[in-house]
Specification:
By secondary structure, the chain is of the alpha/beta class. It folds into two domains: 136 residues, Response regulator (Rossmann fold, 3-Layer(aba) Sandwich); 61 residues, Orthogonal Bundle (Arc Repressor Mutant, subunit A), CATH 1.10.10. It is built from ten helices and five strands. It has a five-stranded parallel sheet with strand order 2-1-3-4-5, with helices on both faces. β3, α3 and β4 form a beta-alpha-beta unit. α2 packs parallel to α3, α3 packs parallel to α4 and α8 crosses α9. The longest helix has 15 residues. The model has no long low-confidence stretch (mean pLDDT 82).
Length: 223
């Protein structure tokens, strides 16, 4: 079955462009559009999309609050949210990730990256682009812990290897890259990542990366 996509952006021209790109793919179907967060909530309830392509800055209700309501405890449906950002202008992307977004993508990303991101998010994975993630978290370093705060008790539930894996996830490395770095198999890495998420009560790799920075395990700007 095709992946059902809802386009949410206050610029009709951008929505048209996204629609043209996505409808050229046999496994993707654009089921609706919305020009702001309130319309997005209505469309999610009515159309039950698999993935919501969500802009951040919109009138009436922004993408952060819409994401929070779509993915929160009272969510109505299985929709995952993929946030669209211009990066240099959007200071709310970290908040969108905390609110429950499964990842983010630059608005000027190539068409094939957009298509792949939607497929990844629909499959239940996080779209965590390494370079963007690192730049984003470093950009907002002033809003994150300095690394001098007490380590959260939950972090002590992880093994040393799981802590290593969490640090590499926070740097934006893929499973393959982590496997190469630690000289283990990708299957082993997936197992470790799964244990980290379960022990820390996190939904996906995006939340894991944010947690690593917020807990002080990884310091913004550190290599």
């Amino acid at each position: 079955m095709a992946i059902r996509v809802l386009l949410v952006d206050d610029q009709p021209l951008l929505r048209t462009g996204f629609r043209m790109i996505l409808e050229a793919e046999q496994d993707l179907a654009v089921v609706g559009e919305a020009g702001d967060g309130l319309q997005a909530l209505e469309q999610v309830r009515a159309l039950q999309p698999d993935v919501v392509l969500m802009d951040i800055r919109m009138p009436r209700m922004d993408g952060v609050e819409a994401t929070r309501q779509i993915t929160g405890p009272a969510k109505d449906g299985p929709a995952k949210v993929l946030v669209l950002t211009t990066f240099d202008l959007d200071e709310y992307v970290v908040e969108a990730l905390r609110a429950g977004a499964s990842g983010f993508l630059l608005k000027d990303a190539p068409a094939d990256e957009l298509v792949q991101a939607i497929r990844v998010v629909a499959a239940g994975e996080a779209m965590l682009a390494p370079s963007i993630t690192r730049r984003l978290l470093d950009k907002y370093a002033g809003h994150l812990p300095s690394g001098e705060e007490p380590v959260p008790d939950t972090l002590h539930t992880l093994t040393d290897r799981e802590v290593e894996v969490l640090k590499l996830v926070a740097r934006g490395l893929s499973n393959a890259e982590i496997a190469a770095d630690l000289f283990v198999s990708e299957t082993t890495v997936k197992t470790h990542v799964g244990h980290v998420l379960t022990k820390l009560g996190l939904r996906d790799r995006v939340q894991a990366a944010v947690y690593a920075y917020e807990s002080g395990l990884v310091r913004p700007g550190a290599q």
